Amino acid sequence: MTSLNKKWIVFIILFTASYVANGADSFLKQANGFYDKGEYRKALVLYRKALTARENSAIAGFNLANCYFQLDSIPQSIVYYRAVTDEAPDFFRGYLNLAIALYSLDDMGNCMAAITRALEIEPANGKAQMIRAAALRKAGAYPEAIVAFEKILEADRSNSDIFIALGEMMRELGDDDAAVEYFEQYPESGPNRTYALSCIVDIYEKLNNSEKLFYYLEQLREKDPTNRWTWYRKCTLYEKTGNPLSAFAEAKNALLEFPDFGEMALFAGNCAFSLEQLGEAEYYYSLAKKLGCPGAAAGLENTEIARNRKYAEN
Questions:
Q1: Cβ-contact 71, 40 below 8 angstroms
Q2: Same fold for the pair 1-122 and 230-314
Q3: pTM of the predicted model, to two decimals?
Q4: Quick one: which of 140, 137, 88 has its CA closest to 117?
Q5: Cβ–Cβ < 8 Å for 87, 56
Q6: What secondary structure letter does DSSP report for 191?
Q7: Homologous superfamily assigned to 230-314
Q8: Which pLDDT tens digit goes with each residue over 262-297?
Q9: What's the CA gap between 254 and 264, in Å, rounded?
């Protein structure tokens, strides 16, 4: 979830092919035009020509590396990023992009070396700090990663996914209270709010905290009303806490929202059977069978047996 995915990596590569130094020659201009249109292979050919012609070789090499990165040819991109940093040892974005490429190959040792050099050049750069924190986490250095992420939050709380990263690490370290605290801080409008709520639900389910579990399950359902399995978890929680009537009522409400939910129909049938509401049990087992849910046929057989036994007793 929180590792640096390709989309996020590309987003933070700020110094891309659109940059050309003043007086750049035609090869660079043509290459940049192709790059800006996403035609990376054509741009790559022209950046090579720019290198051969020595047209601002540092920029041409950097943009050539960016092309390889965009084409998922990460090892080749690393070759050119290294060449650029050798030629221009104070080129911050060369080290930044080199670190990103190394991160994507899980080479955390060299990634840390590159991002450390980038931060020596621009110590306050937030994106470089983010890569360092993510690399520490990926390397398993959780205490250092937590400190690094929290330092970023002190300066700028706009990157909401940091709350997810911190919550996940705290959860893996067994500090459930701290994990919940970070997941709760994830903003309501954030794209991963549903995931944050799901993590909180999982934690309280593990802790058998029914009160908190009901509360966050309801929040999760409100946030993502199309997720039928949130309904199912709430139904099973009612059953687990000894509220079969509430479980049955919730299951019936869920089937009004999701009439093709075979597992919920089977659950409703089981609830009705346990409550000795055999007519309702037969109805929901029949629905589950129609929806192709395994176990529905056995439920119908058990209902028929129970009905015959009841008639015999009367």
A1: yes
A2: yes
A3: 0.81
A4: 88
A5: no
A6: T
A7: Tetratricopeptide repeat domain (1.25.40.10)
A8: 999 999 999 999 999 999 999 999 999 999 999 999
A9: 8
Closest CA to 95 of 79, 106, 84, 108: 84
Q: Which residue has the tokens 């995931």?
A: 195
Contact 207, 199 (CB under 8 A): no
Exposure string for 192-220, b = 16+ CB within 10 A, e = fewer = bbbbbbbbbbbbbbeeeeeebbbebbebb
Hey, what are 111's tokens?
């990634």
Residues 184, 190, 194, 196, CA torsion sign: negative
**What's the rounded Cα separation, in Å, for the pair 163 and 183?**
6
Here the tokens at position 52 are 């051969």
Listed by start position, the domains of the chain span 1-122, 230-314
Instruction: Name the pLDDT band for 310 (thresholds 50, 70, 90).
Output: confident
Q: What is the pLDDT of residues 175-192, one digit of tens each?
A: 999 999 999 999 999 999
Domain covering 1-122 assigned CATH 1.10.3210.10 in the classification = no
Residue 190 DSSP symbol: S
